[in-house]
Predict the 3D structure of the following.
Amino acid sequence: MRDTLDDIIVRPARADDRAFLLRAVERLPEFGPPSWRTPAELVEGEARAVRGYFAAPPPGTTVFVATAGDGAPLGFVFLERTRDYFTGEEHGHVGIIAVAAPAEGRGVAKALMRAAERWGRDAGYRKLTLTVFDGNLRARAIYEHLGYRPETLRYVKLLERT
């Protein structure tokens, strides 16, 4: 395992981060999506959210970027305000988290998740949620290590057209 980075800085995203975020979402198909999700479909969905944020940030949405001490981007987290299906309570949601390949395993995701938790507390939310593909065992282990627990399982059946 590589050494952790001691000089990770997490800051709000700026307009000049857009290209990095769009490149970073291109890695997401590497992390265990189901076979019926094409890489292009996955990347386009996440890229659409990033482009939308930079065009006109939806209310309650923010993006944080992790950088090295020299300013090089290492990863980002896309945060949204959403409502609990059962209670209607507003809470924070991690819509996207991505780390650049050279920074993987060096504490970047943990730093971003800690920033996300601060954001949620500062907004007055009682909880922060996220969605992860079932096959992304590494991310699931990180989230569970940070205190996140599974709540529901979403099942999908592809329907044949008749």
